[in-house]
Amino acid sequence: MSQMTPSLRYQRILLKLSGEALGSRQGYGIDGETVRRIAAEVKRVHDLGVQVAMVVGGGNIWRGADAAATGMDRATADYMGMLATVMNSLAMQDAMEKLGMVTRVQTAIEMPPVAEPFIRRRAVRHLEKGRVVILAAGSGNPFFTTDTAAALRAVELMLKFCSKRPK
Ligand code: UDP
Asked: Where are the chain's structural domains?
């Protein structure tokens, strides 16, 4: 069933979550307590009836540019960074589902046993059904970042929501 709450200023949002936000105080690794806190915050927004998509970064685990600076092939390093975003996305999914939310992880790099591939129309359908869509693996392309991927996915998933509602 399509979820629409007319009183909401924003019917659908895309949240960009930096990997560092999921890390411990030092910003590294995945801190379970932090992930659970963020999941609870997202749930509060989702419970208002807002459709929520998320793009999750990977900088708490791996950044391609840093590895390339030490001599690694940049494209290889970037693919590793995209895989890091998948780990973070799965951690977010786990925490949100523990709170009773229904979620789907979609990845820009296909890995069928782990998550759905990113299919725009399917992502929209999930959102309409009230599922939180967690978008992993950035844009699927090296030499980009998850900020770019967030902008791309926002346009893909949100465009018709961008015009201002009449007052
Ligand atoms: N990345 C990439 N293409 C993308 C998105 C990400 O190659 O479309 C790689 C890149 O190496 C990047 C890493 O994944 O450094 C982690 O993403 P990002 O640095 O954007 O994470 P954040 O800063 O949001 O934690």
From this structure: 12-159
The class level of CATH for 12-159 reads: alpha beta
Q: How remote is the C-alpha of 29 from its chain's centroid? A: 17
> With a cut of 70, which residues of the chain have pLDDT below it?
1-4, 161-167
The secondary structure element, H or E, covering residue 104 is: strand 103-107
Q: Which helix (H) or strand (E) holds 131?
A: none
Query: Does this model's pTM top 0.85?
Result: yes
The predicted structure's pLDDT at residue 143: 98
Ligand 1 pocket, residues with Cβ under 6 angstroms: 18-20, 57-59, 63-65, 78, 81-82, 84-85, 138-139, 141-142, 144-149
Closest-CA residue to 53 (of 130, 146, 119): 130
**Two tokens at 129?**
């059904």
pLDDT tens column, 134-146: 999 999 999 999 9
CA terminus-to-terminus distance, the chain: 26
